[in-house]
Amino acid sequence: MAALATGGATPSDGATSFQRKVPASSRLAAIAGTRPSVRHGQLLLSSGLPSLDCVLGGGLAVGTLLLIEEDKYGIYSNLLFKYFLAEGIVCGHNLFVASAKEDPADILKELPAPLFDDAHKNQVDEKETAIKSKQESQESMKIAWRYQNLPKVEVSPAASARFGHYYDVSKTVSPELLQSIKWHRFFLPEEMSLHPEIKTCNMTYGYTRLLQSIQRIIYQEGFDGSYPQKKQKNILRIGIQSLGSVLWGDDVCCADNPEDIHSLTKFLYVLRGLLRMSLSACIITVPAHLIQNKAIMERVTNLSDTVVGLESFIGSERETNPLYKDYQGLIHVHQIPRLNSLICDVSGTKDLAFRLKRKLFTIERLHLPPDLSDTVSRSSKQDLAESTKLLSSGCGAMAIGKKHLDF
C-alpha cells in the first residue's frame, strides 16, 4: 500500500518508503550559501561569523535586517560589517555596499581573507593553544575534589552543524576573488556631485538616493522574482555603513530634537518593505552612542529585525579590570525576530563577550574567574566584588545579589 501511495516507488537502502511525491516545479531551487531553518522553515544565510550565527539561531533569515550598534570607536562593528561582505564573496552572492565616509571599493579591498579549510583554522590556533597550555601548566590551580570530575564548560557557542566560513583578519582578500563577483556601489559624495540635491517626503537627500539605488538593483537584477526563468537565483547582500551619522546629512546625532526626526525611521520602514519582497539581506551599522534622543533609537530598534550591540572596553574601567583581561568587549543581543513562530529562536547563552585574537575574531561565553586565594589583600577582593556588579548590570544576570560568588 505504501508503494501505491508513493506512485510505485520502492524503498531504497537507508530510506523510508513513506515519502510524499513532490512535483519538480514546486521544489525550491538550492541557492549557494543558504540553508533552510529546521525551526521555522525560513531560508538562512551566514553572517560571516559562525559563532554569531549560533547566537542568532542559526544565521540571518533572507529578507531581514541586521542592525549593529557601533562601539565608540567603530573598530569591531566595522569588522562585523566586513565579515558579512566577505561571506557574500565566498558564497558568490551579489553585493551592494553603501557608505558616506569610505569609498566602497576601498572597503572591499580591506575584507579579510577566507580560510577554506578547517585545517588552516587549526594551524592558526596552534600557537595560541600552546601558549595557553603552558600558562595552565605553570599556574596550575588546585580545586575541590568534588569539582574535578565535572565536565568543562564550552566557552564558545557551538551549533550542531557549522554554517559559514572562517576568515583571517591579518590578510586581505585576493584581487582574483574580488573580480569573480558582481557588486554595486553607493558613495554619497559621488551621488551629490552627479545629481542635484532634492529633498522629498521629509527624508534627507542621502536616504532618498540610497533607497532609489537599492530599489533599482532589486528590480533590474530580478531579486524580486520578476525574472525567474532567465537566470539562476542568487542572494543580494546589502551593507550600509554608519547610517544616521552626520555624513549622511542626518542630524539625529547632533541635537536632542533634530529637524528631520522621522527621516531615519522612514528610511528603515521603506527598506524593510524592499527586503521582504526580494531575495536579499541587509546589515546596517548605526552610531547608537551618539544618538541623543532615546525615543528615536527605540523606533530604530523596532523597525529592525535583529539588533546586536557592541560594547568595547577601550577607554573604560573594564579595560584594566582583571575580570575582562581575555576579552575586548561585550556583545548584547537586544532583539531577534519571531519568524513563523510565537517565540524567537535564541541561544541559551546570555552573557557573551568577544575577543580579537591574532588572526581570528570570535564570540565566546563570558565566565567569572574563581575567587582569589587568602593571600590577596581585602581591597582587591572588594574590587572583584564591584566588578561582578558591573558584569551583572552590563551583560545579563551573571552575578545576582550584593555579594560576589564564593567557591
From TrEMBL:
Its chief place of residence is cytoplasm
* Pfam families (UniProt xref): PAXNEB
Q: Where in the cell is it found?
A: Cytoplasm; Nucleus
Top-level division of the source organism's lineage = Eukaryota
- Region annotated Disordered sits at 1-21
Q: Which family does it belong to?
A: Belongs to the ELP4 family.
**Organism field:** Chelydra serpentina (Snapping turtle)
This one is known as Elongator complex protein 4
